[in-house]
């Protein structure tokens, strides 16, 4: 039996988190948001969110008859979302596709994949596939000239399914030199504490050699130096 998920009217769901009311509730309705689903890992007043961060909150909603993820600023930290949305748009397909955005919301593709922390305990061949997708995504972002800015802590910002998706462009920049690949390799494989240390052990990685490869890549980010990183990470078939 398939149970239909209840979709709450915009007036009922706490889209103005953590306050009761906000101006953008009306804007969301005007943009075609029909209702909001209570689903996700974070809870507030008996409603569930996909995410509650220090700048924004994300929830699943129905828009133009499809399920979408919507990010809005927290009402105790109102910020203009347009820069984040523009960079996220450039980052597609590494980022979720942006359908519509304004100063106060990003309506985007809902990505139903598990986050990377749920996939690192998989057996070696599957783990390698996961890591390869993630490194390829980070390399693609580097080549696009986008620096994500928070990938040394990849756990909440990388979802992996058919493709690896990197979320949250709130700290991203087009001015900084991109360091997505070096950050993500450091976060996933180089840190001395678990889970990175555990992954590196499982993969049988020689950290000194990987560091040398990363230095080469950092000096001259290219397909060729990326291949050396992949080789030293034991991810080249
Ligand atoms: N498009 C999406 N599809 C599925 N889940 C998403 C999507 N966007 C965000 N999420 C979920 O919501 C969480 C929070 O997203 P995000 O990091 O963009 O916002 P935030 O943490 O609330 O805000 P910020 O970090 O900017 O303060 C993510 O870790 C992820 O689990
Ligand atoms: Mg975040």
Automatic annotation (TrEMBL):
Highest taxon in the source lineage: Archaea
Stretches assigned to the Protein kinase domain: 44-237
One MF annotation (Gene Ontology) recorded for this entry: ATP binding
Protein name per Swiss-Prot or TrEMBL: Protein kinase domain-containing protein
Phylogenetic lineage: Archaea, Thermoproteota, Thermoprotei, Desulfurococcales, Desulfurococcaceae
